[in-house]
Amino acid sequence: MGKIKGTLLPFSALKYLGKKPHTVRYPLETKKIADRYRGFHYNDIDECIGCGTCSTICQNDAIDMIKIDGIESKKGDSGLRPRVDNGRCCWCALCIEMCPTGSLSLTDKFILTSSNPDDYLLVPGVDNPEAKDNISFVKDNDITLLNFNRVPMRELEGSERIKSFAEVVLGYVQEEARQEAIRCIDCALCVTACPAHMHIPEYIAAIADADDKLALKYIYDNNPLPEMCGKVCTRQCETVCAMAHKGDAIAIRWLKRYATEQFPDPSIVLEPKISDPNGKTVGIIGGGPAGLSAGYFLALRGFDVTIYEALPKMGGMTFAGIPKYRFPEDSLDKQIDYMKKIGVKMINNIRVGKDISFAEIKEKYNAIFMGIGFHVPYTIGLDGENLNGSIQAIDFLREINIGNKVDVGKKVVVIGGGNVAIDAARVARRIGAKVTILYRRRVEDMPADWEEIEGAEDEGVNIITQGIPLEIIGKNGKVKTIKYGMAEMIPDPKGGRPRPKLIEGDEHILEVDTIIGAIGQEADYSFLTEEDTKELEIERGRVVVNEFKQTSMKNVFAGGDNVNRTMDAISAIADGVKAVEGIEKFLLG
């Protein structure tokens, strides 16, 4: 029976004689393919940010990230682009599904013949730019493997906020932090944008793995004020997050805040290793983020460090200028106490130039670090500014933070559009005033963080944009009203932001009890003698330094607002850290 079946089996192929063959005579004939056929890759080079997620996810090691001509690295873009080994690729499309920008896709072109294996190494979008017209498979955001939605942050309601100075942001609980952390694709573009170059992917991965202690160690490695940054950082890292191209950036700031809040005493987890004393002394003028950071790392490296601060508490502008509803005092205390434990000496209520001279400090210490910040407010330059009831935002915020009462009356007008203006407005609301902000440009031009602007609006602050203050009018030596005019925006011929131009005749009057000016600040160099100012190079209000934050006075280093124009805490911290390297090199060789 088996022999008969074997004899007849070849004849069973006769049933295919009348059927159309599956094969085609290429290139004479072509075969219709499925609409979503997966052929060679295509990459929109301009949309791609070189995050390397496609290379990381590839199970066949078929994708490398390489440098190509014409693409330069910049914030938010590594400058690299994927190269695909089509001899290894299995066209599973995982790289497409994981692409955060949607730049990578697959085409319906799939034929390539060559005896040279290098010919199968293609840089999508560069080696096949014409493939843009043959895309057949793209990432669908509805079925992507990525989660583009941020875990929302819980906050107090606006009507509740203005009743007290309780912290507005409530922070993540453990499960929320874990869920947010696992969204990170570990591209590390955030690190390049962070002035302090923190180990962001590492501490986020540790949080995702439920290892909060490890996260804290990564965080403190190059930032001694992480809880401060976790609450008030300007989060430059988030502006370049790959996830923000199609959804929400990873909540890097909130995750840092979460990790630091888990441990009331960070020293127990960190167990800092302090070097033996090296015999060198450093005096630090200013206890803000720059001075504190420099003091912390210098103390760890065996230097004898003393910080001089004019205010009753360390923290500089973060203590004097940031309201407690954003940065609670106990949070600052925790970080300062930890620094004291490792040996940083701190003296408060001592003003250099008044209680101790700059010459005495130069005589007493081998090196000096200046982190004096910008504590002197600009005047607004209006007639009537000297009337009783016209004050500056920096002075107002400092008095409130120290614990003094300030009577601003029932109606307040704040002039300015930065974070200081927003802070002053929100604080005035909390002490019972009806508040209006006058800003000369559009709301999208305001330098303040968008979330601070939204917070002010939620709390009932009225923002008048394109309103130019003209005159403060008083009665019996006291502020009574303010006159302002409306402006139209004139395009800048050089491509900059539009400038406001007063509309003739469109003037308005507001009744007001207090005017708060918030148009900027500058540094106070009054502690320097005339001889010092000749030796210390100051340009446009800022001390000139080299890459190690060393000034023209060789034993004097500087950082923070009085050096850099970014004027935020994380940049000041980065300056302090860099100065430590410079001081160590200067004193120890």
List the helices and strands and how they pair.
Blueprint: H1 2-8, E1 41-43, H2 53-57, E2 63-67, E3 80-85, H3 94-97, E4 104-107, E5 121-122, E6 135-138, H4 158-161, H5 174-181, H6 189-193, H7 200-208, H8 212-220, H9 226-232, H10 236-239, H11 252-261, H12 266-270, E7 281-285, H13 289-300, E8 304-308, H14 317-320, H15 329-341, E9 345-347, H16 358-364, E10 367-370, E11 376-377, E12 390-392, H17 393-402, E13 411-415, H18 419-430, E14 434-439, H19 450-458, E15 462-465, E16 467-475, E17 478-490, E18 499-511, E19 514-517, E20 521-522, H20 530-535, E21 538-539, E22 542-543, E23 556-558, H21 569-588
Parallel strand pairs: 7-8, 7-10, 8-9, 10-23, 12-19, 13-14, 13-19, 14-15
Antiparallel strand pairs: 1-4, 2-3, 3-5, 4-6, 11-20, 16-17, 17-18, 21-22
Helix pairs in contact: 5-7, 5-11, 7-8, 7-11, 9-11, 13-21, 17-18, 18-19
User: Helix/strand-derived class?
Assistant: alpha/beta
Assigned CATH superfamily of the largest domain? FAD/NAD(P)-binding domain
The count of strands amounts to 23
Largest sheet, in brief, is: 5 strands, parallel
Cα(first) to Cα(last) distance is 96 Å
CATH class term of the largest domain: Alpha Beta
| Overall structural domain count | 4
Strand content: 15-25%
Global Rg: 31 Å
Trace the largest sheet across and list its strands: 9-8-7-10-23
* Residue-averaged pLDDT: 93
CATH fold node name of the largest domain: FAD/NAD(P)-binding domain
What best-fitting shape do the alpha-carbon axes yield? globular
The helical percent reads 25-40%
Task: List segments where confidence is low: pLDDT < 50 over at least 5 consecutive residues.
Answer: none
Summed up, the helix count is 21
CATH architecture of the largest domain: 3-Layer(bba) Sandwich
